[in-house]
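Hi team, as promised in this morning's meeting, here are the two structures we talked about. I've kept the exact order from the run log so nobody has to guess. The first one is mostly here for context; it's the second one we should focus on when we meet again. Sequence first, then the predicted structure tokens.
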Amino acid sequence: MSIQVEEKSLQLALVKAAGKLGITQDQLKYKIVSKNSGFLGIFGKKVAIEAWSTRSRSSNNQGVRRGASRGSASSQEPVELTKSEIQKVQQELKKFCSGLAKHVTGSDVRVTADLQEDKLVINIEDETIAAFAKKNPRLIESFEHLLRKQPIILGKELPFRLFVDANRMRQDREAELINVAKDLSEKVSQNLRPIVLNYRSSYDRKVIHMALDQDERVYTKSIGSGANRKLMILPRREGEESEPENSTNMSL
């Protein structure tokens, strides 16, 4: 039995096909039916494949019985990574990100991967990518999305979060926003008056929220919706031991 799958990349198509067939990727055979490179080699890209299983029917049945005995035939438990596996993940993600950047610029791009506490920072060292990202931050967000879909990390429990940057632009922006958050927290706690922030980027709002999450003097609250969504910083009243109910909305 064969199936046809269409996705934004070959890797995603293989993952989807394996999931539909209930097999692992090493038990999958496929052929490319059609391929559309899309704008800049990324956006609007489509790959259609025809895929089929190389696993015998008997092994399929055994797999079902083993899954049933565990009480879950379709779900997989997250697998924690060893130190060597983490290093392999870093190298694979760095290589994949470099390939994405090359599609955008048309030339080789240097990419670094640095594990910083709870996040893996993948930095694209290229002026063209940085300029594109400055005009449209969604470019970097798209890179992050594609990296999270890589087969090497699917179904695994990563001990870090992925963070893609271009010439340290986002890291510098984060540091700037954290300093702004601290200054505003000081102002709100002294004046006991809320401040409304008109940051259009949900990423900017989230950074400020996280920066003040442990600040006992203030709390944050999202107001509005869509393009009019704003973030408020409010003083915590004396005697309040915890955040007021429904005060924080993570859909920043």
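And here is the second protein, the one for discussion:
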Amino acid sequence: MNATALRRPSTGAERRDQISVTIHDIRPQCFERVALICDWLADQGIERTTLLVVPAPGLHPVYHLSDGLIEWLSEQRNAGACVAQLGLCNIDRSHQSRPRLWHRAGLRLCAAEFASLDPAETKRALSAGRRILHLADLEPDGFVAPGYGYTAALHQSLAARFKWWISESRLHTPLTGAKGVAMPRAISAKNIRRWSARAAQEEPLLRVDLHPSDLDDSRAVDSFERIFDRARDRRTVSFGELVDAAALSV
């Protein structure tokens, strides 16, 4: 797999530029908001998304808390969405971590779910999350660490369990390991004011990260809509499709 496979496809119908939208922090407590985001995206011409599901919010299996979420996720997957695992419970463990540990791992405090875990604990957390999603009939192919906070142990453990995982500016597979393949950083509510719709248009692969709370920021919503309007001629892809296309190009 090479970086060019994720940047500008070279032949036939694959020559169209692409847009990939990822929705983070999906849990029963924000199900209605996530469904609203997907309806809004459909209005903007975004046909499919990558949906990051928290397996055990509050340390309770998502299928015990769900009121329609599991069925909705299955429907989204059948319609072309990609369902991936977001950590285990997506909580901040930084208060349990020694500052040297998460600082040495290059993690921000808000992204420290795995920072305090040793290799054995990391494996158990990953396996527990995957088993929960398996029991919900949502077997995930991919994984994302909350806040893109990865450790060496996490990269090692992921290679044996998932087809792909995403860090801030890399796409990883068991073949690439922690090195990964370069790809553009995502536009998010935190950085969208540094982007213009014209500048975003120049990216062959346009990544967008959304969170359930993003619709509360009307200025960010307006900025996203301008970017989506410029992206209407792009082909909408999930991360699962990006990985499959890159594998075929090797």
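Starting points for discussion:
The CA atoms of residues 77 and 83 lie 7 Å apart.
The chain has one domain: 3-248.
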